[in-house]
Write a structure and sequence with these properties.
By secondary structure, the protein is an all-alpha fold. The chain is built from 3 helices and no strands. It is elongated and about 45 Å long.
C-alpha cells in the first residue's frame, strides 16, 4: 500500500511541475515589476482551468505527503 502512495506522489509531483511551467509564460521577476497592471487581470478560459488544476494538485500533493508520513 505504501508503494502505491509513493507512485501517486511521484506522478502528482511531475504533474504539478508541468502545470507550473505551463503557467509561467514569460512571467519572470523583471516582467512582473515592469508590467504590474497585468498582474491584476482576471483569468479566463484555459488559463483559469490550469490555475485551478495547479491548486488542486498542490493540495493533493500535501495530503499525499501527510498520508505517507502517517504510513511510514
Amino acid at each position: 500500500m505504501y508503494n502505491v502512495f509513493q507512485t501517486i506522489h511521484i506522478v502528482l509531483s511531475i504533474l504539478i511541475v508541468v502545470l507550473v511551467l505551463i503557467q509561467s509564460k514569460g512571467g519572470g521577476l523583471a516582467s512582473g515589476i515592469g508590467n504590474s497592471i497585468g498582474f491584476y487581470r482576471s483569468r479566463r478560459g484555459l488559463e483559469k482551468v490550469v490555475f485551478i488544476a495547479t491548486i488542486v494538485v498542490a493540495i493533493l500533493v500535501a495530503a499525499n505527503s501527510l498520508l505517507l508520513v502517517i504510513l511510514s
